[in-house]
Amino acid sequence: xxxxxxxxxxxxxxxxxxxxxxxxxxxxxxxxxxxxxxxxxxxxxxxxxxxxxxxxxxxxxxxxxxxxxxxxxxxxxxxxxxxxxxxxxxxxxxxxxxxxxxxxxxxxxxxxxxxxxxxxxxxxxxxxxxxxxxxxxxxxxxxxxxxxxxxxxxxxxxxxxxxxxxxxxxxxxxxxxxxxxxxxxxxxxxxxxxxxxxxxxxxxxxxxxxxxxxxxxxxxxxxxxxxxxxxxxxxxxxxxxxxxxxxxxxxxxxxxxxxxxxxxxxxxxxxxxxxxxxxxxxxxxxxxxxxxxxxxxxxxxxxxxxxxxxxxxxxxxxxxxxxxxxxxxxxxxxxxxxxxxxxxxxxxxxxxxxxxxxxxxxxxxxxxxxxxxxxxxxxxxxxxxxxxxxxxxxxxxxxxxxxxxxxxxxxxxxxxxxxxxxxxxxxxxxxxxxxxxxxxxxxxxxxxxxxxxxxxxxxxxxxxxxxxxxxxxxxxxxxxxxxxxxxxxxxxxxxxxxxxxxxxxxxxxxxxxxxxxxxxxxxxxxxxxxxxxxxxxxxxxxxxxxxxxxxxxxxxxxxxxxxxxxxxxxxxxxxxxxxxxxxxxxxxxxxxxxxxxxxxxxxxxxxxxxxxxxxxxxxxxxxxxx
Length: 626
What we know:
By secondary structure, the protein is mostly helical. The chain has a domain at 493-622: 2-Layer Sandwich (Heat Shock Protein 90). The chain has helices spanning 12-23, 30-43, 49-65, 69-85, 89-105, 112-125, 129-145, 155-168, 172-189, 192-205, 209-225, 230-246, 250-267, 270-286, 290-307, 310-326, 330-384, 389-462, 469-490, 495-498, 500-514, 532-552, 589-600; strands at 519-525, 557-564, 568-575, 604-609, 615-622. It starts with 11 loop residues before the first helix and ends with a strand. The relative contact order is 0.03.
């Protein structure tokens, strides 16, 4: 549903509403009726998106039918806020453009700073923080240019968003400066909400416990002395509960969580309620109340699935993984970790689609601006003819240089943003995929490896004169070397530097050197480096299949073929071992690991194996589009 525009056929709606108001003894002006619908829409902002749209549409029809342009702009601002809550950033930006056009067409200069403020907010949420700062400072300049008599009700909100942008950039000193500015303006303009939000954000920036408590105390006073949205109270309770858990005040934290959950459940703040259940589960795990923790995680997951919120689902799956680790069920913990990674990947794909749409919208807007500039340039050229050939030549050269620089600047900025987002996405994907392997490798190297080192010293100290000393010492050394090699194979530290093919050759060379009865051969036609996450996953696939063959095939030869095609990578691994019944071996751990990783890469797996005739794995994986 979208706000309707330019539909004059709805002129009967305001007349009907006014007649109904008179008939029932409660007459209202048109502005009051519009404000009533806008208040309804704002009430549902964190509760139900469809209700926001419903009441915003009603307000828009009334404002449109009476040509009330300031109220139409207010409707657009309401839709922007609602779309931001549900992460519809492309729609939010389009409403910013509609509001900007309406402001420019009707000379609503008092609304112009808010337009740039919301443009900056959308850019920040999409990850373009530098662009957001430009929009915020443009809004500040516009506010400064307004007469003193004009109300600047959103100025404190603007400085709050500016501070939040600097937090994202790691500039906490500047963030504190602008938060204090927001508080000062909020007090002057009696904007309770952004005074409260600024105190809460200042508390989050503090490193000393006393300072954190000070700002939370100021927040509590505002809530106690004013009619504040219960949503803000829930947010404050959650923040305080997190703090009290961190300092081991579990009883206080538990009370605050239960209060926040009760309010969120009563008011219908579904998205925040899911996060509360998830956070509360961690407190229960710290208290070793695992049954209650599991129940709360189930509640969080049910809400996330009902809302189809992939991001929250991924967080809850990650929490389930931590829960099963806490009760020593590591197999199930790993399965939930894999589920979390798949959800994260799905969420990132949706983000990339939205980013592409957003960049297309920005690019189209810039193109329209260039077309307007081009039209103005033609008009200037026509006028310049009147001043003679010399003046005309000078103006044409100036316009040509300006247009060329403008075009090159637009293209350069667009390409820079594309490259930046691609790099951020790739890094995030690599970090998520390797988390568990790095953790396991560290445990092997730093935990078991260190203990084996200690054992070796004990053997040297206490068994030096034992007739079997050399045999025991050699066994300990062999085990220690095996653990170290296993740790290094789990995390291919040289993959980024050497690339996939050389890393695989090193791995195979190491195995061939350590085994006299096994020969592994690699044929690879990969002319250039692949995308980083694809190389990592291919390395792990080959490693898993080699490991599987060594454990189960009883053969003495493994042949690996890795071929690159225009749109896919083909991987095959064949051994001359005893083979196996593929139907009877579906539940094997190694085989399941291979299938899960192929599924994660959206690939296809074919296994050709019969008892006594060896085994052939054939995998086709589509290339990751960059």
